[in-house]
Design goal:
The chain is built from 15 helices and 18 strands. It is of the alpha/beta class. It folds into 3 domains: 145 residues, Rossmann fold, CATH 3.40.50; 74 residues, no CATH class; 226 residues, P-loop containing nucleotide triphosphate hydrolases (Rossmann fold), CATH 3.40.50.300. It has a 6-stranded mixed sheet with strand order 3-4-2-1-5-6. Helix 8 crosses helix 10. The chain is globular and about 75 Å long. The N terminus is likely disordered.
Length: 480
């Protein structure tokens, strides 16, 4: 039958190879998933192919993935001399990423399901195939792989083993996600005093330390210590026997205000050091509602676009996933269609363009001055839709990707690779608020880039901890 490995007996020392039955949503989520099961065998039911066919039309990410999965399966099947019934070796097509075999359903499978389950449903037919395979191969673990929670519950209720597709998950537990900052232990200076070097350059203090913590410190990780001699610094060189620390610019002081904004807590100060540093090309800011992600980023963008002229303009994009029901088609240009999604931008611009405290006359020359400033700011901010990003290159731009937790790793790659020379990319998001179907905290594109970019010399990450919106918002975030 299909899943026999050329009738060779399995050796007693080696565990029997698992047989994974793939649901359609796994292939549509990650078309390369057929190469991600290492030495285990895969079985693709006819219904999975049927559903791939039904979802291939259109320009959505799902349709693109369905087409790519179909092309990949075609390459594997047509490029092999082996018969589909005995399974096709994946070692060659996967370039040795996988060493199992791929089986396709080659015969009709009937009558395994309980009478209460309608066989007209695609999910039930795939479960029936898995149950049939379990009967055919009682000694092999047969596992259904699907991203559909209800389908997993149904399969387990029928006594079948079912799993989520874990390969795209960067972390099992998002509590382990890199936060970007580390509190130094109270005895840090005693345990790292041997061979300590210190020097000053351009108004900053540098320390070179060696000791037990030095190998664990990542480049651009922030370290801090409270106490009689508080320290806020970041690691400029790490990962070896010694680590080099550099003290930070204090953005909580009014003299260092960025477009009138000062840091209200330690993490905001870390964030502004990343956002204002020209050496850092890629910044990720995580944090719940009200921690100041968008405000700090916009302030830094405006200061470097309009004051220091480091960037020619600010480009903002975000995923258009509505929280409630959609409001239908919107009239106007691309910018005008994106306006409802950009309420957060408008709110933050109002804060950044507020009248000065000593009275409006001193600040902007009355309402006229304020309106003129707003027009100047708006002329430098472009709002773009994600849908038209492919093939573009941004040169000398300050690119802000808002609500980045709703992006898949593939979309994230598409966006970040748009950056040309002199462009800074900032990703903002809250992984506790994901609105995209099938994306979880562990598989979000934002989690993916935070994990993959840590320790690179031109990127930085910080998780903002404290809400600064209002006492009402903070209390709501805690109790609701």
């Amino acid at each position: 039958m299909h899943a026999k490995r050329n009738d060779k007996p399995v050796s007693k020392t080696r565990k029997p190879v698992k047989l994974f039955v793939l649901d359609t949503n796994v292939l549509m989520h990650d078309p390369l998933s057929v190469f991600r099961f290492e030495e285990h065998d895969l079985f693709v039911p006819m219904m999975t192919l049927e559903e791939l066919d039904a979802n291939k039309k259109g320009m959505s990410e799902v349709a693109r993935n369905a087409r790519q999965a179909s092309r990949l399966l075609d390459e594997i099947v047509s490029g092999s001399e082996e018969s589909i019934q005995h399974g096709i070796e994946l070692t060659g097509p996967s370039r040795e990423l996988a060493s199992g075999r791929l089986f396709l359903q080659t015969e009709a499978i009937n009558g395994v399901l309980p009478a209460s389950l309608p066989t007209s449903r695609a999910d039930n037919q795939i479960i029936a195939v898995a149950l049939h395979l379990r009967q055919e191969h009682p000694k092999r673990p047969v596992i259904l792989v699907t991203k559909d929670i209800n389908m997993r519950i149904k399969a387990r209720a029928l006594g079948l083993e079912a799993q989520d597709y874990f390969n795209d998950k960067v972390l099992e537990d998002t509590d382990l996600l890199y936060t970007g900052s580390l509190e130094l232990p109270p005895n840090f200076w005693e345990t790292h005093a041997k061979g300590l070097e210190s020097w000053k350059k351009d108004g900053r203090t540098y320390y070179r330390v060696s000791g037990p913590l030095a190998p664990d410190l990542l480049v651009n990780e922030f370290v801090w210590q409270d106490g009689p001699q508080p320290l806020q610094a970041w690691v400029r060189a790490g990962g070896g026997k010694t680590a080099e620390l550099e003290t930070l610019i204090d953005y909580s002081h009014a003299k260092n205000a960025v477009w009138g904004i000062t840091a209200r807590n330690r993490e905001q100060n870390f964030a502004l050091n990343l956002l204002m540093n020209p050496e850092i090309d890629f910044v990720t800011l995580l944090g719940q509602a009200g921690t100041g992600k968008t405000l700090l980023t916009l302030a830094a963008g405006l200061a470097q676009t309009l004051e220091s002229k480091r960037y020619s303009e600010i480009i903002i994009t975000r995923v258009t996933v509505p929280v409630g029901e959609d409001i239908g088609f919107l009239p106007g240009t691309e910018e005008e269609k994106m306006t409802p999604w950009m309420g957060a931008l408008e709110d933050n611009l109002d804060v950044l363009n507020k009248p000065s405290e000593e009275g409006d006359q001193a600040g902007y020359g009355g309402d006229w001055g304020r309106a003129a400033t707003m027009d100047l700011i708006r002329s430098r901010i472009k709002v773009k839709s994600l849908n038209f990003m492919r093939g573009r290159t941004f040169i000398n731009k300050f690119l802000i990707i808002d609500e980045a937790q709703n992006l898949t790793p593939k979309q994230m790659k598409t966006l970040i690779t748009r950056a040309g020379p002199g462009t800074k990319v900032v990703c903002l998001g809250n992984i506790a608020q994901i609105d995209t179907p099938y994306l979880t905290e562990g598989s979000s594109g934002l989690t993916y880039v935070v994990d993959r970019f840590k320790g690179w010399g031109h990127s930085g990450h910080i998780t903002l901890q404290r809400g600064e919106r209002s006492r009402l918002a903070d209390h709501a975030a805690e109790v609701l």
